[in-house]
Amino acid sequence: MRDNVQEDERQNWNRRYQEESHDTFEPDPFLLNAYDDFIRPTFAKGGTALDIAGGMGRHAIWLAELRWKVTVVDISEVAFEKAQRKAEERGVKIDFLVRDLRSFDPGEEKYDLVLVFFYLQRDLYPALVKALKPGGLLVYKTYTEEHKTKHAKTVRHPEYYLQENELLHTFLRLRVLHYRETVEEKGVAELVAQKR
Ligand SMILES: C[S@@+](CC[C@H](N)C(=O)[O-])C[C@H]1O[C@@H](n2cnc3c(N)ncnc32)[C@H](O)[C@@H]1O
């Protein structure tokens, strides 16, 4: 049963990436801001980064161009192929692991930076913190309930949306450097937090 669910998820994402008519490799504006405000001031020379559910690698490739050593984990082989092609085109290397995050252990104190954009898997929260080195940064952005009720064209399963203040409360053990929820164009929450 669980294997079927995993296979559905993989096929579903592969189909979406195959059907995508215009692939976007633009980094999310929040990453650009977080980079200027928190990431570069903390890690001027780059470091090691983990991009959780990193898709076609838009953030991983951008970071690799800034000399970061980046690992992407994503379930989709199609995203993997597109990411590899784009990385080659741009002359950078990224490590791309085609894995299901529901059975993935990112390890302990391996990364200076952990990114999560538009992916929510609550049982992974502790592993995100564990994967950070002391002083490392977690940068997280995804949809809130607000998005589901006001903006979403297709409503996915309720478990894919953050509750009010969820990221803030979940990562309070870290030093929260930035937290914001927006309700205008999209309902999203953004967090930057540092492991002590
Ligand atoms: C909305 S996309 C976000 C992609 C990327 N973070 C970005 O912002 O461009 C969600 C991603 O989660 C991946 N994904 C979904 N379920 C997954 C799972 N169980 N394990 C690993 N990746 C998964 C999909 O393949 C997809 O690339």
Topology:
Layout: H1 2-19, H2 29-42, E1 48-52, H3 58-65, E2 69-74, H4 77-90, E3 95-98, E4 111-117, H5 125-131, E5 132-143, H6 145-150, H7 166-170, E6 175-182, E7 188-194
S-adenosylmethionine binds next to helix 1.
Describe this structure in words.
There is one protein chain. This protein has 196 residues and is α/β, with parallel strands linked by helices. The chain has a single domain, classed as 3-Layer(aba) Sandwich (Rossmann fold). The protein is built from 7 helices and 7 strands, in the order H-H-E-H-E-H-E-E-H-E-H-H-E-E. The protein has helices at 2-19, 29-42, 58-65, 77-90, 125-131, 145-150, 166-170, and strands at 48-52, 69-74, 95-98, 111-117, 132-143, 175-182, 188-194. Bound molecules: S-adenosylmethionine. Residues 9, 13, 53-55, 58, 74-76, 79, 100-102, 117-119 line the site of S-adenosylmethionine (SAM).
